[in-house]
């Protein structure tokens, strides 16, 4: 970012800072890459559904790199307003100045706009995406009196975790039915071990044992656990082991303690760890 050529490059390419420059490592688990590519070809808005830490964000980064599109990511939350997405007038020394929000910017530069955890946002915020996600592909900036026509390469992608979110927070049908959807889940054991070995820097055999601990925890989902151990936590455990923490301790730190405060459940998970890491 501090090379002297950078400012010029940035002026020439407003998308420069949103480009994914190095290939993110992504292990496909099904036909999701081809399916997403077909959807992108039609600029179809897409919804990625799946539990926490199963690879949704990594997948989007990988697809943005593969399709050579800039990626604008927005972490949604309930305090977010429509202005946070579309933009607002700011006051500065010279008076007022309009500043595009991330959605507007993405629509202008032809980025993939990734709204992470979209159900966290309030309904009146989410509706601003509607005109962008049907044949109109426009974004009205009411305050500014401008109608932004989306760049031909613009695509909207949203993610959400259907598991633990309350029904109250479900997406409205009029929002939901603007998207094609890809289901994500933790990869099968072989693929997940590959991910854990690669990302955590541990041997395949050790990664496979971590994956078996996760499988036990996932069987406890709904029986006292909201979610099983995610691929992300497995990568954490592997990372600690690779940095010299003994495996049973690494599993306690990265797999058991983050997951639950319930003493009985912790004991059950510790027992699962002990089965695979004596
Ligand atoms: N198929 C995969 N290929 C490569 N890495 C993966 C894959 N699946 C999971 N991972 C690893 O798991 C980690 C967590 O994945 P990611 O951040 O994409 O989860 P997520 O589904 O976006 O979770 P959340 O819903 O909590 O945001 C990644 O940083 C990566 O190390
Ligand atoms: Mg994510």
Describe this structure in words.
With 278 residues, this protein is an alpha/beta fold. It folds into two domains: 178 residues, P-loop containing nucleotide triphosphate hydrolases (Rossmann fold), CATH 3.40.50.300; 88 residues. The chain is built from twelve helices and nine strands. Helix 8 crosses helix 9. The chain binds adenosine-5'-triphosphate and magnesium ion. The site of adenosine-5'-triphosphate (ATP) has 19 residues, from helix 3, helix 8 and helix 10. It holds the Pfam family CbbQ_C. It comes from Thauera sedimentorum.
**Highest-level CATH class of the largest domain:** Alpha Beta
What spatial order of strands do you see in the largest sheet? 2-5-8-1-9
Tally of domains: 2
The hetero compounds bound to this protein are: adenosine-5'-triphosphate, magnesium ion
Write the element-wise H/E pattern from the N-terminal end onward.
HHEHEHEEHEHEEEHEHHHHH
CATH architecture of the largest domain: 3-Layer(aba) Sandwich
Q: What's the total count of β strands? A: 9
How far the N terminus sits from the C terminus, by CA atoms, comes to: 47 Å
- CATH homologous superfamily heading of the largest domain: P-loop containing nucleotide triphosphate hydrolases
**Biggest sheet overview:** 5 strands, parallel
What portion of residues is helical?
A: 40-55%
Low-confidence parts: none
Rg measurement, Å: 21 Å
What's the tally of helices? 12
* Mean pLDDT across residues: 92
**Class inferred from helices and paired strands:** alpha/beta
Query: Which term fits the overall shape?
Result: elongated
CATH topology of the largest domain, by name, is Rossmann fold
What fraction strand? Answer: 15-25%
């Amino acid at each position: 970012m501090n090379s002297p050529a950078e400012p010029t490059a940035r002026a020439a390419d407003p998308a420069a800072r949103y480009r994914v420059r190095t290939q993110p490592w992504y292990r496909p688990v099904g036909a999701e890459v081809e399916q997403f590519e077909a959807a992108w070809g039609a600029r179809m808005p897409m919804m990625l559904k799946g539990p926490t830490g199963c690879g949704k964000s990594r997948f989007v980064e990988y697809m943005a790199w593969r399709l050579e599109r800039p990626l604008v990511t927005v972490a949604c939350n309930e305090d977010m307003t429509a202005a946070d997405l579309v933009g607002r007038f700011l006051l500065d020394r010279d008076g007022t100045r309009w500043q595009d929000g991330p959605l507007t910017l993405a629509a202008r530069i032809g980025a993939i706009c990734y709204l992470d955890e979209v159900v966290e946002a309030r309904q009146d915020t989410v509706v601003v995406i509607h005109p962008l996600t049907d044949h109109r592909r426009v974004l009205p900036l009411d305050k500014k009196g401008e109608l932004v026509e989306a760049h031909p390469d613009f695509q909207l992608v949203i993610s959400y975790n259907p598991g633990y979110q309350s029904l109250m927070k479900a997406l409205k049908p009029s929002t939901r039915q603007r998207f094609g959807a890809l289901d994500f889940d933790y990869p099968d054991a072989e693929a997940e071990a590959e991910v854990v070995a690669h990302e955590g820097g541990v041997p395949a055999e050790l990664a496979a044992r971590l994956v078996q601990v996760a499988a036990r925890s996932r069987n406890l989902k709904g029986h006292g656990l909201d979610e099983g151990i995610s691929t992300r936590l497995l990568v954490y455990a592997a990372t600690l082991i690779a940095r010299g923490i003994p495996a049973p301790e690494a599993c306690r730190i990265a797999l058991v303690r983050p997951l639950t405060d319930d003493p009985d459940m912790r004991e059950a998970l510790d027992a699962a760890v002990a089965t695979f890491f004596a």
